[in-house]
Amino acid sequence: MTTAPPRLVPLLDQFDFACERLLRRLAGPVMDSGDGGDTRVEPLTDEEYFWEPVPGCWTVRRRSDGPGPRAESLAGGGPWGRDAAPYPHPWPPPVTTLAWRLSHLTEMLSLRADHTTGSRSATREKHPVSGDAAGAIAALKTAVADWRQALVSADDTALDTVGYCTYPYGSDAEEPFLDIVWWVNQEVLHHGAEIALLRDLHWADPRT
User: Fold this and answer.
1) What pLDDT score was predicted for residue 39?
2) Do 129 and 135 form a contact (C-beta atoms < 8 A)?
3) What is the reported pTM?
4) How far apart (Å, rounded) are the C-alpha atoms in residues 10 and 141?
5) Which positions ≥6 away from 19 have C-beta within 8 Å?
C-alpha cells in the first residue's frame, strides 16, 4: 500500500471532503448540512441541470443547435457541447448553468488526471459533454476518482517536479505539481459552492 507524502495528506483530505460533499449535494439522498447533521436532498433533475436563472446563460447544448448568446463555439466532443469563447472572454462574464459548471469541472479533473498519469493526450475537443443530469454526475464521479488516483501515485519528487502534470490549458508546465494540487482543490471548492448556490436558487424560484 502506497503512503502519501505527509505534505500531500491535508490537500488529499480536503479534496476528498469537498468532492464527497459536492456529490452528495447533487445526488443525495442526504447532504452535509454544515452543522454536523444530514439534510435530505433530491437528486439533480434534467430540468434543474439545464435551468437558466437569468436570460442569456451559457450552458450545455446540442451541437446541432450551435452556441448560445456571446459564445463562439461549443467545447467538447460528441453530440453535446459547452458554450465557449476564446480569450478575451465576454465581459461581464455570462452566468452559467449547473450543466455548464459540472461539465467544466469534470473536464478539468479528467484531463488533468490524463496529463499526469494517463496517456497525456486528452483534449477538450474530444472530451465528452453530458446531455443529462445523471450522466453528468456519473462523469464527475469518474473524473474525481481518476484525479485522486493521480494524486496518490505522486511521491515527494513528483510533488516538487515542475511540469509533472502536462495539462495544456493552464500553467501546469510552469508549476511544481504540489501547486497544481492546491489549485485543483481551489477549483473544486469554488465551483462546488457555485453549484450548491444554484441548487438553492432553483429550489427557491417560484417559477420552478
Assistant:
1) 83
2) no
3) 0.94
4) 21
5) 144, 148, 188
List pLDDT tens digits, range 41-52: 899 999 999 999
Q: What kind and span of H or E run contains 195? A: helix 177-204
What the block records as the C-alpha cell of 205 is 424560484
Helix axes 177-204, 9-27, angle to 10 degrees: 20
Question: Taking Cα atoms as reference points, which of 1, 20, 4 lies closest to residue 12?
Answer: 4
Summarize pLDDT for 99-139 with one digit per residue, the tens.
999 999 999 999 999 999 999 999 999 999 999 999 999 99
For 9, the grid coordinates are 495528506
Q: How far apart are CA 170 and CA 187, in angstroms?
A: 12
pLDDT for res 132: 98
What is the residue extent of each domain of the chain? 9-49+104-204
Measured in whole angstroms, the distance separating CA 9 from the mean position of its chain's CA atoms is 21
CATH architecture of 9-49+104-204: Up-down Bundle (1.20)
Listed as ranges, residues in the chain with pLDDT below 50 are 1
Quickly list H helices, 37-176. Answer: 46-49, 98-117, 133-152, 156-160
- CA atoms of 19 and 25, how far apart (whole Å): 10
DSSP 76: S
